[in-house]
User: Fold this.
Amino acid sequence: MYANTTSAMMQKTGQRLYTIGEAADLIGVSVPTIRMYEREGLIIPLRKTSRHRLFAEHDLQRIRCIRKTINTEKVSIAGIRRMMALIPCWKMKGCPEESKEACPAYHDHDAPCWMVTNKSWMCKSDECRTCKVYIETSDCSELKQILRQYSIPVDVEIPPKR
Ligand code: SF4
Assistant:
């Protein structure tokens, strides 16, 4: 099924892209579930000029990982979002002090940096979807480990799955 998806498209790089319906079928979730993950800021689909969401293989991996964390580790969507909100993007990107202080993402602890608007000049021209912060935190089962690596306390309350 995976190789025969008729509407699968290729990016310029030769990367296979899937529509939201195809992605949902391949992962075994509903389309509204994927839309909800997007609304919650857990994923950033590729949007072409048509405004249709497209998903690459690494997006599917990211969603599978989210599903696994929810189902086997019993972490809620809010919990995953909370951990993503704690990712120290300024450390990962090496933002200078003055940029960090002026950046809304540095002060916002409720949403991942890629959901924060009015980003600092360090991020303004970057596309979040291809940013190292987004890419390197794509395995949500490793989020706690990544946070510890950057000395971010993870003993904050992570909402469990209800
Ligand atoms: S470019 Fe986007 S993902 Fe990267 S650090 Fe800035 S806000 Fe976060």
Strands lie at 9-10, 16-19, 46-47, 53-56. Residues 89, 93, 105, 113-114, 119, 123, 126, 128, 131, 133-134 surround iron/sulfur cluster (CB under 6 Å). The longest helix spans residues 57-72. The chain is about 45% helix and 5% strand.
